[in-house]
Amino acid sequence: MLTLVTGATGRVGQGFAPRLLAQARPDEHVRVLVRDEARGAAFAERGAEVVVGDLRDTDVLGKALAGADAVVNIAAAFRYVPDEEAWAVNRDAALELGRAAVASGVRRFVQVSTGLVYGKGRGRPLTEDDPTVPGGTMWGAYPESKAAAEQGLLALDGLGVRIGRLGFVYGEGDPHLAESLRWAGQWAATQRLHMVHVADVAQGLMRLLYAPGIDGRSYNILDDAPVTAVDLHQLNGAAIPSELHTNADPDPWLAICSTDRIRRELGYRPLYPTVWAARDAGAL
Fold it and tell me: What is the Cα 4 distance to its own chain's centre?
């Protein structure tokens, strides 16, 4: 089995690709698509085949997909990029990759998405059967483009698509945790963020990659306990702004997701059930 991984040098990819390589059996091989040849050297040292090129370059896709059995599409453009780039990478390039995968005979395609595709909260944990309801404080080009990519990929004939919807990724030096204060500093004290450690992202995506019989299914990949704005300040060693205690939470269930499906169907159990557990283990 040959698996192509896109976005291997990004925050999620750097946690996933090395673990995929480390756990590969003798008949399992990994190819990574990277834009920077120098950054691909670390994967080559671990045994990966490296293809240099941009996901948006259709001429590169044939080489990247040649002989591949599966794709894990992690490549994404999200915070602090123009909306046009988010759409170009998250929707257009993902759909072009999917079409090229069908043409190359790939039959298994793991699409990395986000829990933000649900849009507004439902007054309970969000499940994979919930439709998108656009709106809310975190709605924008990133979740919109990811939702459109999901729909387009699932509509392709001949491609076994599996979708992993991630929470707020952190861990192993990822700066996301510190960046969370950009938003949490203006939240209500009890406003929550549902997170997932990069190690649990990796195990979740590998379960999606290898499990038989789950084509067309979506899975939420998150930890067990969302943290509050107060928690985020404490985890970052930051003073808690007094206004947090007077601010109102506009949607207490925004992006709070159920992991019941991935637990029951794929045996997923977070290595780090909470960000506090990860902190105590020295895994931040």
Answer: 16
Backbone angles phi, psi at 106, to 5 degrees: -70, 140
Q: What is the pLDDT of residues 151-176, one digit of tens each?
A: 999 999 999 999 999 999 999 999 99
Query: Around Cβ 212, how many Cβ atoms within 10 Å?
Result: 7
Computed over its alpha carbons, how large is the radius of gyration of the chain? 19
SS3 252: coil
> C-alpha angle with apex 15: 11 to 21, nearest 5 degrees?
135
**Are 162 and 215 a contacting pair, CB within 8 Å?**
yes
Q: Encoding tokens for residue 111?
A: 């699409």
Q: What's the farthest any 2 CA atoms get from each other in the chain?
A: 58
The whole model's pTM is what?
Answer: 0.97
> What does the chain come to in residues?
284
Task: For residue range 38-82, list pLDDT tens digits in order.
Answer: 999 999 999 999 999 999 898 899 999 999 999 999 999 987 889
